[in-house]
Amino acid sequence: MALRAAPGRGRWLARALTVSGAARVPPLLLPPPAAAASALPLAGLRPAARFASSAGQGPEAEGPQRRVLVVRITSPIAWLRTRFYYLLIRVYFDQEFSVEEFTRGAKQAFSVVSKLLSQRKLDLLDELVSAEVLQALKEKISLLPDSHRDALAADIDAIMYTTEGDVRIYYDDDGIKFVSILMRFWYLNGANLPDEVPGETKVFQIVFGDESTKEKRHLLTANYEFQREFTEGAKPDWTITRIEHPRLLE
């Protein structure tokens, strides 16, 4: 189920669909809830593959190690199209717009919001999530089984891969300007989900220490859309206007 806030009247200036890759984008200024950090700094976009070591860290770590590798191949045309839209954002909206900083902030915001959803602390999401999406979440979270709710939470270190989806630039008839960027996340979660969960979910047996000690992790996906108004005088804040956890939040 897609939980999404309607952008209102608007004429599209640009749109890129299903894009991944690296580039430069703007600072993400999402004011977190009181229980979270006071600021969400932004980080650089990772390469097309990220590794997560399943064994202990440091020179004292013993036993065999397993790594989860997530690889996605980027379409050159899609990559160039996305870069063009990012250029438009920098030229017409924000000269300091940086993809690396935006991606870092999006990952941290995703981790904070997903954990609050898992903990049913929706009252702390007012500053992060649009009112429309928050209302839909309140109607859904209470109905989820514990296993599905646990699977919503994503630790920042468990995010295996992050990429952009839709990139949109538009304005309405009153001259109000918006930019929305859909981010896709792949993350590991140890919730007690059935192995046959359909969709994009994958199951890994990750070994810690030795073969007699195993922890099963699911590789899950989530889509979060971030929207910011660039009208002169508007707050430089990004708001989450769409939340999808396929096969979990439905």
Written description of the protein model:
The chain has 250 residues and is an alpha+beta fold. It has a domain at 76-244: Nuclear Transport Factor 2, Chain: A, CATH 3.10.450. It contains four helices and nine strands, in the order ββββααααβββββ. It has helices at residues 76-92, 99-118, 131-141, 146-151, and strands spanning 3-4, 11-16, 49-53, 67-71, 159-171, 177-189, 202-207, 214-229, 239-244. The strands form two sheets. Strands 1, 2, 5, 6, 7, 8 and 9 form a seven-stranded antiparallel β-sheet that branches. Strands 3-4 form a two-stranded antiparallel ribbon. Strand 7 (202-207) and strand 8 (214-229) form a beta hairpin. The radius of gyration is 19 Å and the shape is globular. Mean pLDDT is 73; it is low at 8-65. This is MAIP1 protein. One of its GO terms (molecular function) is ribosome binding.
CATH class of one domain: Alpha Beta
Determine the N-to-C terminus distance: 5 Å
Unreliable segments (pLDDT under 50, ≥5 consecutive)?
8-65
Major sheet details = 7 strands, antiparallel
Mean pLDDT: 73
| Helix proportion | 10-25%
The count of helical stretches stands at 4
Strand content: 25-35%
Helix and strand content put the structural class at alpha+beta
> Strand-and-helix sequence, N→C?
EEEEHHHHEEEEE
Q: Indicate the overall shape.
A: globular
Taking Cα atoms only, what radius of gyration do you get, to the nearest Å?
19 Å
CATH architectural grouping of one domain: Roll
CATH fold label of one domain = Nuclear Transport Factor 2, Chain: A
The strand count comes to 9
Oligomer: single chain
GO molecular function, one term: ribosome binding
Protein name: MAIP1 protein
